[in-house]
Amino acid sequence: MTAEPSKSLETFPNPKPGREYEISFEIPEFTCLCPKTGQPDFAVFRIRYVPGELCLELKSLKLYFWSFRDEGHFHEAVTNLILDDLVSACRPRRMVVEGDFFVRGGIHTVVRAEHSA
């Protein structure tokens, strides 16, 4: 069975909703396109969150990140869009999304966006 990129994020019930604990992910192969040149941008995304009632399901998260591959986005915009989409899907207590973009034009960019319930 082949998987396709998807903007659909799946969740599952938090197994310990009464306890605060942190979940972290690292996505080292993120790609999107530069909206100015159309050339690929590469980044490592780091996500840290304290779940509320729901947790993010990993396969859907992988397909979600894959869905950006052929889209043009500025670093700041895509990092904030990802945070908004993840917060909307799982309603965490707290979440931080960090996009650590590879050097482009001699500039290394890191964008960090935060959410608190």
UniProtKB/TrEMBL annotation:
<feature type="active site" description="Proton donor">
    <location>
        <position position="41"/>
    </location>
</feature>
<dbReference type="InterPro" id="IPR016856">
    <property type="entry name" value="QueF_type1"/>
</dbReference>
<dbReference type="GO" id="GO:0005737">
    <property type="term" value="C:cytoplasm"/>
</dbReference>
<comment type="pathway">
    <text>tRNA modification; tRNA-queuosine biosynthesis.</text>
</comment>
<keyword id="KW-0963">Cytoplasm</keyword>
<feature type="binding site">
    <location>
        <begin position="75"/>
        <end position="76"/>
    </location>
    <ligand>
        <name>substrate</name>
    </ligand>
</feature>
<comment type="function">
    <text>Catalyzes the NADPH-dependent reduction of 7-cyano-7-deazaguanine (preQ0) to 7-aminomethyl-7-deazaguanine (preQ1).</text>
</comment>
<feature type="active site" description="Thioimide intermediate">
    <location>
        <position position="34"/>
    </location>
</feature>
<dbReference type="InterPro" id="IPR050084">
    <property type="entry name" value="NADPH_dep_7-cyano-7-deazaG_red"/>
</dbReference>
<dbReference type="InterPro" id="IPR043133">
    <property type="entry name" value="GTP-CH-I_C/QueF"/>
</dbReference>
<dbReference type="InterPro" id="IPR029500">
    <property type="entry name" value="QueF"/>
</dbReference>
<keyword id="KW-0521">NADP</keyword>
<comment type="similarity">
    <text>Belongs to the GTP cyclohydrolase I family. QueF type 1 subfamily.</text>
</comment>
<dbReference type="GO" id="GO:0033739">
    <property type="term" value="F:preQ1 synthase activity"/>
</dbReference>
<dbReference type="Pfam" id="PF14489">
    <property type="entry name" value="QueF"/>
</dbReference>
<dbReference type="GO" id="GO:0008616">
    <property type="term" value="P:tRNA queuosine(34) biosynthetic process"/>
</dbReference>
<feature type="binding site">
    <location>
        <begin position="56"/>
        <end position="58"/>
    </location>
    <ligand>
        <name>substrate</name>
    </ligand>
</feature>
<protein>
    <recommendedName>
        <fullName>NADPH-dependent 7-cyano-7-deazaguanine reductase</fullName>
        <ecNumber>1.7.1.13</ecNumber>
    </recommendedName>
</protein>
<keyword id="KW-0671">Queuosine biosynthesis</keyword>
<keyword id="KW-0560">Oxidoreductase</keyword>
